[in-house]
Every structure is written in structure tokens, then in C-alpha cells.
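User: Some background: our group keeps a shared notebook of sequences we're curious about, and every so often someone picks one and asks for a predicted structure to add to the entry. Today it's my turn. The entry only has the sequence so far, pasted here. Could you supply the structure so I can complete it?
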Amino acid sequence: MDRPLSGHQVVHLLLDEPVKQPLVLWLRGAGVLMLIVWTLRFATAPVIQNAAGMSFLHLINLPFHEAGHILFIPFGEFMTVLGGSLFQVIVPASLTIVFLTKHRDVFGAAVTWWWVGENLVDLAPYIDDARRLQLVLLGGKTGAEVEGHDWERILMTLGWLHLDHTLGRLAQFLGVMIMVSALVWAIWLILTNHRQPATEPLESF
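Assistant: Of course. Here's the predicted structure to add to the notebook entry:
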């Protein structure tokens, strides 16, 4: 039976190897500043404005969303519809785990954790639009013009259509909280870089 992680192992898991190249630290700092700007933009915009969906990051998320629909076909109609939104969150979450446990690129894990939150923010207007159906979709038409969209079907199936605005705001809130936690994590890694001893490989768990 696998042993639970000790407190020391958890801290070790979240610490990166010390970076000796100043250029790498400067580039990481510049990357974090960019993520801060995006976070502020997405966090302060109302869900209905679809700030994340109007950014180029949406174009990165979109292929994973569409691939999710295909990958979940074997699990039935409901999961096929939900699979698009699910897969676009699963991809960055999986990368976060891989960076932490396999590649030991903890700063990379912080960035992909931020991407998890950004994907939730990206989905929030989609969820919020389940009754309104005014969001412009991939084909250039609104949900009302093409007889609905994913989240209308998902919430209708669950009997939660009346909760679309609540669930949309919840996705926005959780996404922003994840992005903020990722930024705190990334900044902590940069600021503590010179005080970190070289780390040893984690014991298997």
C-alpha cells in the first residue's frame, strides 16, 4: 500500500531546483508579470463579457475542447457533450501532475496550474449563457441560431438550467482563485530561489 505524503515530502514536491542562470529567473519574472496582467483582466471583467474567450488563450484551449468531444464518444451522449469542457481542464491539470512528479519542473507546474484556472474562467461565460444562448460559437453563430450549445444540453439534462448564472459565476470564482494561487506559488519560487538547497529525488509514493 502506498504511504501518504509526509509534510516534508509535500513541501519538497512544491519546491523547484535552484536556478543558477539569472536570465532564466528574469524570463520567469517576465512570464509571471504577464500572467498577473491576464489574471487582473479576467478577474475584474463580468462573466458576461467573456474576457478569457476574447483572448488568444481561447484559441489554445479550443482544440482541446473539440478533441474532448471526440475522446468521450465511447462514454455516451451526455459525456460526449460534457467531454469538451472536461478535457480542456483535464489537459492542464494532467500537465501539472507530470511537471511535479516526473519532470520536476515545479515552476512549469505553477504555470500549468494557472492554466487550469484560466480554463475554468474560459468556460464560465459558456455556462452562464445556457438560457440566454447569445454567446457566439465556433461557427460564428449564437446558440439561439444553432438550437443551443453544450452547456444548455448539460444543464437541461441535469435539471439545473435555472442555475446557469450561479454555476457560471462559481466557475469564474474558482478559476480566479486557482490563478491567484498559481501566481503566489510562482512568485514564491522565484523569491526563494537563492535560499533553496539542491533537492534530492522524491521517494516513490
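Suggested note for the entry: Residues 14 and 94 are 16 Å apart (CA to CA). The two ends are 9 Å apart (CA to CA).
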